[in-house]
Amino acid sequence: MGLQQFERRLERMVEGVFARAFRSGLQPVEIGRRITREMDLRRTIAPRGTLSPNEFMVALSPGDRSRFEPIESELISELVQVARDHARAENYIFLGPVKVAMETDDDLSPGMVLISGEMVKPARSSAASLVLPDGRKLELSSKPIVVGRLPDSGLVLADPNVSRYHAEFRPAPATLGGAESDREYEVSDMGSTNGTKVNGIPVVNAQVLRDGDTVTVGATTIRFERT
Fold it and tell me: Strands of 167-171's sheet, edge to edge?
């Protein structure tokens, strides 16, 4: 499902005259497939769950790198989302934020791609934030944030399907006393009328969030992101 969405988004990215450059040769979706394959091959069982690589290096031939150059930044953003979507579908967890970088390898022939993935824990504090539908970001801290319609909520949403006090984002108690980079965050429903969902599944108890998870309150979808 994640790769199908990726393909649809790619079609919009390369519409028009530029699309002719992608009718042959290495296709961007193949890079997405190779990243998900690398995640599956390098996964490992850990006490908290199944760990997957979170940082990827994509090596391309000089010709392919040049061909992708006009959309490279957008393509990297889409590949990051592919990795997040795949992790969510397979219940993988990351040590840190998902990152994708590209490099040119003069030894590669056109159409060839090499992907390497590593599990990298951030050396410094990893910021956690909520990405709102309009693109705004609300950074999380040690203080809980209540989402609701009332003005005294930490995040006020003008959504008639959102309850007065709908949901709460807060640090997971077990990680509150540790380093900020190790801190996890969770979301819980506050007895709302329409409930709270994480990746489409209703929240019953407090649920720990992973990079890229989507939280739906009423008719509003918020993305949890680590950077």
Answer: 155-156, 145-148, 167-171, 185-189, 207-208
Please, are residues 161 and 218 in contact by the beta-carbon 8 Å criterion?
yes
177-227 residue pLDDT tens? 655 656 889 999 999 999 999 988 899 989 989 888 899 999 999 999 887
Instruction: List, for residues 6-39, the tens digit of each pLDDT value.
Output: 666 655 555 544 455 556 678 888 898 899 999 9
Secondary-structure percent of the chain, ordered helix, strand, coil, rounded to 5: 30, 30, 40
Using CA atoms, how far apart are residues 203 and 201, in angstroms rounded to an integer? 6
Radius of gyration, CA atoms only, the chain: 19
How is residue 15 written in tokens?
A: 């519409």
Tokens standing for 12? 């919009």
Quick check: 68 and 185 in contact, CB under 8 A?
Answer: no
Q: Are 138 and 227 in contact, with CB atoms under 8 Å apart?
A: no
Catalogue the E-assigned strands of the chain: 44-46, 49-51, 55-60, 92-93, 99-104, 113-118, 128-131, 137-139, 145-148, 155-156, 167-171, 185-189, 196-198, 201-202, 207-208, 214-217, 220-226
Buried b (16+ CB within 10 A) or exposed e, 98-131: bbbebeebeebeeeebebebebeebeeebbbbbb
Compute φ and ψ for 87, nearest 5 degrees. Answer: -60, -40
Strand, coil or helix: what is 93? strand
